[in-house]
Design goal:
GO terms for molecular function: N-acylmannosamine kinase activity; UDP-N-acetylglucosamine 2-epimerase activity. It comes from Haladaptatus pallidirubidus. InterPro entries: ATPase_NBD, ROK, ROK_cs. It holds the Pfam family ROK. This is ROK family protein. The chain has 325 residues and is of the alpha/beta class. The protein has ten helices and 13 strands. A five-stranded mixed β-sheet has the order 3-2-1-4-8. A five-stranded mixed β-sheet has the order 11-10-9-12-13, with helices on both faces. Helix 7 (232-256) crosses helix 9 (272-282). The termini are close together. The relative contact order is 0.16. The chain binds zinc ion. Residues 166, 177, 179, 181, 184, 186 line the site of zinc ion.
């Protein structure tokens, strides 16, 4: 039997899976992403997960024909590394990936993608319909997209296309993004930024009556969504988030003309009614292009891992016609 492997390298966790030639996952292993150490420690964690997943599948790593990797960025595709990852400690400046993984599996068929591109590759591979023109958008701690147009996954020259969370949605630029620039989508709507956006809205309104713990350092996006329908200010924040999400998704649809937009990431996965429904209801109003289906990803929080597996099976494309079986 032929085996394929996938790796999901995130800021919090590393996961690896071994799959058969149909993309069925046989075994998986995960662990925390090492923080505060050198990049090579992260490489070692990736290799550990792959070794353990192979051990669980009762195979030698050299039996793996190809591997896909979906990773936090930014990437240097030519070198096969992550460089100066934004969401890991400053001590980590370079994480070698394709070389060490290739050495482990004795194969040069190692495909590296940013996590959202891995996501769209997975969604494409595991979907029955419209695989050639779709967008995957993650709304989690950050916001990003993976895009396939006419069957081509858009990676960009350095692997970093699709950073749509850093598109300007608010021309007034009231919020400064983690990247240092003003008015970016992610600064209003990502899980990490919703609490600060809520505080800003409360200040703009000159103080509000709310049960939300705005002054608590642990105040989170979850608190906002949990108070939907119970707290008028929470509803106001959710409405504002819905507004900027609709602007962001509309811009992406106008640029790439997808037939389906799949949304994933914890904020979308945990709040389909509050996050997806408003986009579904409003997107038509801003579009010249065809109105796409807006759906929750069918792959849940395994989308990057499954996408990495799908990449290994399809020479990095997600195109089912290239799969071995
Ligand atoms: Zn930004």
């Amino acid at each position: 039997m032929a085996y394929y492997a996938g790796v999901d390298l995130g800021a919090t966790n590393v996961r690896a899976a071994v799959a058969d030639g149909d993309g069925n996952v046989i075994s998986a292993y995960d662990r925390g992403t090492p923080g505060g150490s050198a990049g090579i420690a992260v490489t070692e964690a990736v290799l550990e997960c792959l070794r353990e997943a192979c051990a669980d599948a009762d195979i030698d790593p050299a039996e793996v024909r190809a591997a896909g990797i979906g990773s936090i960025g930014p990437l240097d595709l030519a070198e096969g590394v992550v460089t100066n990852p934004a969401n890991l400690p400053d001590t980590i400046d370079r994480i070698p990936l394709t070389g060490p993984v290739g050495n482990l599996i004795h194969s040069d068929r190692v495909f590296l993608h940013n996590d959202t591109n891995a996501g769209v590759i997975g969604q494409r591979f595991y979907s029955d319909r419209n695989p050639d023109d779709m967008v995957y958008i993650t709304i989690s701690s950050g916001i990003g997209a993976g895009v396939t147009v006419d069957g081509n996954v858009l990676t960009g020259w350095d692997g970093n296309a699709g950073e749509v969370g850093h598109m300007v949605v608010d021309p007034q630029g009231r919020r400064t993004c983690g990247c240092g620039h003003d008015g970016h989508w992610e600064a209003y709507c990502s899980g990490n930024n919703i609490p600060e956006f809520a505080r800003m809205l409360a200040e703009e309104d000159g103080g509000v009556e709310t049960s939300l713990p705005l002054d608590d350092p642990d105040f989170s996006a979850k608190d906002v969504f949990e108070n939907a329908g119970l707290d008028a200010f929470a509803d106001h924040v959710i409405e504002q988030v819905a507004h900027w999400n609709t602007v962001g998704v509309t811009n992406v649809v106008q640029a790439y003309a997808p037939i389906v937009v799949y949304l994933g990431g914890a904020v979308a996965l945990n709040n389909e009614e509050l996050v997806l429904d408003p986009i579904r209801e409003r997107i038509e109003d801003g579009l010249l292009n065809n109105v796409p289906d807006v759906q929750l990803t069918t792959l849940g929080d395994e989308i990057v891992l499954k996408g990495a597996v799908a990449s290994a099976l399809t020479e990095g494309t997600g195109d089912v016609s290239l799969a071995p079986n």
